[in-house]
Design goal:
The structure is a single chain. This protein is α/β, with parallel strands linked by helices and 335 residues long. Helices cover 42% and strands 17% of the residues. Strands 3-2-1-4-5-6-10 form a 7-stranded parallel sheet, sandwiched between helices. The longest helix has 21 residues. Bound molecules: nicotinamide-adenine-dinucleotide.
Length: 335
């Protein structure tokens, strides 16, 4: 199959492209704007055609979509903290960008899969969300992702475009940009930097290893029913503070590196997805959180050339703004 993968140079997109090319022999065209989170290095050694462009640019999209059988859209701004500081790019990419892609898929008459998130449902104290739960997003990130989902569904109902939506829970694994919780904590722990934990650290997430999510997306693309959304939850739940403690154990860091910082505004307390619907299609997670976290820590430890340019570039300024502390300046002093 020939696929157009938008946002394929990011974390989940690059894992998906690697899997499709290596395990399924697909031909892949990657369209990516290469924001701070998109990197050609993420696709090193993977055969693909690369188009440097934005999904909100109709000309770029028209060129990239030629001859493909399906479009998979990962392209997004993905960091909740950045959506609070500067929501405009989130509106542009998720609303305008998704619209342009849908129009192009409609003109080409091809299947369209939108990669979405559990955050569109908001927080849940107990139990798990199903695909019929109401959308109740709480950040500019999740609100614009929810808007994109609704637009995708409208193209199925109004124009008969064969659309699919995959809503994943929190992903982790190789190639994740270090602003996100797990790689942030792994790299800080390796360097002896402080580990900034928001609020009381008891925000619970439903952790999903990235290769499992990538497999689910491929599975839904092949077997999903057009017009439907599929939740893809991870096999294990874990509070952020426990995630940090496990990382400390795996990296040999010290508990005293933990530093509690002011909570994120509107921080959702718990996310949880039921995966029965995608399970009925024949998908199941293969990697538990314990194994996945060990593999992730090992990957970051073994791939310094991947993260060194990030930790020494613009990311330093972002980090200082966000946490009020310079990277590399926060080793433990024995207290
Ligand atoms: N990371 C998670 O835990 C998670 C969980 C569930 C769903 N998702 C969803 O999965 C998708 C991918 O997430 P990720 O964590 O890999 O993100 P990421 O930030 O690592 O990668 C996003 C990619 O999209 C590209 N991009 C951004 N704006 C673009 C635009 N306008 N045009 C073209 N390319 C653009 C970036 O350059 C980057 O390569 C997103 O849609 C996200 O909402 C993420």
């Amino acid at each position: 199959m020939r696929l157009l993968v938008c946002g394929g140079a990011g974390f989940i997109g690059s894992n998906f492209v690697r899997q499709r090319v290596d395990e399924h022999g697909d031909e892949v065209v990657v369209l990516d704007k290469l924001t701070y989170a998109g990197r050609r290095e993420n696709l090193a050694g993977v055969a693909h055609t690369f188009v440097h462009g934005a999904i909100e640019d109709p000309d770029q999209v028209a060129g990239a979509i030629e001859g493909v059988q399906a479009v998979v859209n990962f392209a997004a701004e993905t960091h909740v903290d950045r959506s609070i500081a500067a929501p405009d790019a989130f509106v542009r990419t998720h609303a305008q960008g998704t619209y342009v892609l849908l129009e192009a898929a409609r003109a080409a008459g091809v299947r369209y899969l939108q990669v979405s998130t559990d955050e569109v449902y908001g927080s849940i104290a107990e139990g798990s969300f199903t695909e019929t739960s109401p959308l109740a997003p709480s950040s500019p990130y999740s609100a614009t992702k929810a808007g994109a989902d609704l637009l995708v569904s409208s193209y199925f109902h109004t124009f008969d475009l064969p659309t699919l939506i995959c809503r994943g829970s929190n992903n982790y694994g190789p190639y994740q940009y270090p602003e996100k919780l797990i790689p942030l904590m792994v790299l800080n722990a390796i360097h002896g930097d402080r580990l900034p934990v928001y609020g009381d650290g008891m925000q619970v997430r439903n952790w999903l290893f990235v290769e499992d999510f990538a497999r689910a997306i491929g599975h839904v693309l092949a077997h999903g029913r057009p017009g439907e959304a599929y939740n893809v939850g991870g096999p294990d739940e874990c509070a952020n503070l426990d995630v940090v403690r496990r990382i400390i154990e795996l990296t040999g860091g010290a508990e005293s590196l933990i530093e509690y910082v002011a909570d994120r505004p509107g921080h959702d307390r718990r996310y949880s997805l039921g995966s029965e619907k995608v399970g009925a299609l024949g998908w199941a997670a293969r990697v538990g959180f314990g194994e996945g976290l060990e593999r992730t820590v090992a990957w970051y430890r073994d791939n310094a050339p991947w993260w060194e340019p990030i930790r020494s570039g613009d990311y330093r300024a972002y980090y200082e703004r966000q946490y009020g502390r310079a990277l590399g300046a926060g080793g433990v002093s024995g207290s």
